[in-house]
Amino acid sequence: MDLRQLTTFRAVAQTLSFHRAATQLNYVQSSVSTQIQLLEEELGVRLFDRLGKRVVLTEAGQQLLHYAEKLLNLAEEARTAIMDGDGPRGMLTMSAPETLWTYRLPALLKRFRELFPLVQLQFRHYSSKELFQRVQEGAVDVAFVLDEPLLSTTVSVDRLIPEPLLIIAAPDSPLACLPEVGPLDLDGQQLLLTEAGCSYRNIFYRALAAEGVHANSVLEFASVEAIKQCVMVGLGIAVLPSIVVEKEIAQGKLVALPWQRSSEAHFAEGIVTQIIWHKDKWLSPSLQAFLNLTREILTHEVQIASA
Questions:
Q1: How far apart are CA 29 and CA 18, in angstroms?
Q2: Model confidence at 190, in pLDDT bands (50, 70, 90)?
């Protein structure tokens, strides 16, 4: 058993695909298969079940993944400690929802690359529902989430920026003429919402349910940009973080509906941009540098917005 085999095993375990693991590691697929086969022969157990085109971790595979993560993290810790004379280096893997990639992270990533050019950044895409699990599994070093305030015993959480939610409509929507809008006004309206499980969709549903209103006419989108465009042409009403729509509101392309005060309690906590990492993960110099810069830059954004 060597580190190369464990790295390959971890990639297959995380992607549940020999093909995707090979692509991620820049190997040919046959090399991945051979390394897994040798590892299984050495340990005398089957690490994966091949169920047709599906790959599933066996119980032995799940046990090995736990130890493989520890060994590979320890190896990275040793490598970094020895080579850290020129500052942080190595690789950081991270993930975030589309909204944060688009509106919060570009300036942060640019500054990090300027300050720490020896650190390689690897971006992975997971759905909002998957992000927390992937951090717990060690598939990513760090992730940004846009959610209600998180509490966890397995994951460390830094709450960075409160993100107000807005009910938005086209400027010519009849609802835009009302002095305030509540759940009953949205009964029967076409709603344009993000994927099931999205935090602000859940908050919105709770506000509707409190008034006995059910969302019966929903179009579901994977992209907030698609939602914005559809709202602008009058297809329906949406709930989005203010950062996503503030430009279009300023330009008069969208309007924020005045939500009635009696329903504001459901939006009081709102959602927060948060950064999470496994609580048992070793904070390498590169990860520590990224966390520090994230706090510095995003906290500064809050101070500017509050000024």
A1: 6
A2: very high
Element (H, E) at 48: strand 48-51
Q: Where is the domain boundary, 84, 116, 150?
A: 84
Dump pLDDT digits (tens) for 216-235: 888 999 889 999 999 999 99
Six token digits for residue 132: 């927390």
Residue 138 DSSP class? T
**Cα 301 to Cα 106: distance, rounded to the nearest angstrom:** 13
Residues 263 and 282 in one domain: no
Q: Is 152 in the same domain as 281?
A: yes
Nearest to 248 by CA among 229, 235, 262: 229
Go through the chain and tell me how many residues it has: 307
CATH of the domain at 254: 3.40.190.10
Q: How many domains in the chain?
A: 3
Residues 264 and 284 in one domain: no
- How far apart CA 69 and CA 92 sit, in angstroms, is 15
| Residue where a domain stops, chosen among 42, 63, 84 | 84
Alpha-carbon gap, residue 74 to 286, rounded angstroms: 15
CA dist 167 and 259 (Å) reads: 7
Report which of 164, 161, 128 is spatially closest to residue 143, judged by C-alpha positions. Answer: 128
Torsion of CA 126, 129, 130, 134, to 10 degrees: 120
Between strands 271-278 and 191-193, the pairing is unpaired
Q: Which H or E element spans position 30? A: helix 29-43
Token pair 């209103």 is at which residue? 213
Comparing C-alpha atoms, which of 274, 275, 250 is closest to residue 166? 250
Q: Give residue-wise pLDDT tens across range 129-163.
A: 788 888 887 888 999 999 988 888 889 999 999 99
Q: Quickly count: other Cβ atoms within 10 Å of residue 5's Cβ.
A: 16
- Cα 48 to Cα 246: distance, rounded to the nearest angstrom: 48
